[in-house]
Amino acid sequence: MDMQIPNVYSLAELVALIDRSPEQWRPLVFSNGCFDLLHVGHVRYLAAAKALGKTLVVGLNSDRSVQTLKGIDRPIIPELQRAEVLAALKSVDAVVIFSQPTAINLIESIEPDIYVKGGDYQVETLPEAPAVLAYGGKIELIQIEVPSSTTKIVQQIKNL
Length: 160
Fold this sequence. Notes:
Layout: E1 8-9, H1 11-20, H2 22-25, E2 28-33, H3 40-50, E3 55-61, H4 63-70, H5 79-88, E4 94-98, H6 104-110, E5 114-118, H7 129-134, E6 138-142, H8 150-159
Parallel strand pairs: 1-4, 2-3, 2-5, 3-4, 5-6
């Protein structure tokens, strides 16, 4: 990383940490997303994900990949700021920024014991699912307690 933010790592740094002390990291839970405007739905989702293992690593979409997924007006918050806010959450042990369209490369590199996504996803349509299942990992879908979305929040602000 250009500037060192606590608990925000490059993929190489994270892999080295996990390889050096697997007992401190495993069982490792992994999730990924844009996390553009952090809201209570994100906070509760990440806390529930962390409860499934010893550590929680979050793959954060880079600014470029968020634009590809969400459109030219996004993200609202730059990637290093999003990473710092995520890394400051009690439930998050590490954040790694990725620029690919999916988190498959991260998953193949760290082989999380459990891959977590929100309950609005289906295992059959997750592009990362085959990579997780290939090494024997588990996939968990967590029901979202608070139906909130950054896209809806942005639209609500635009309508003001």
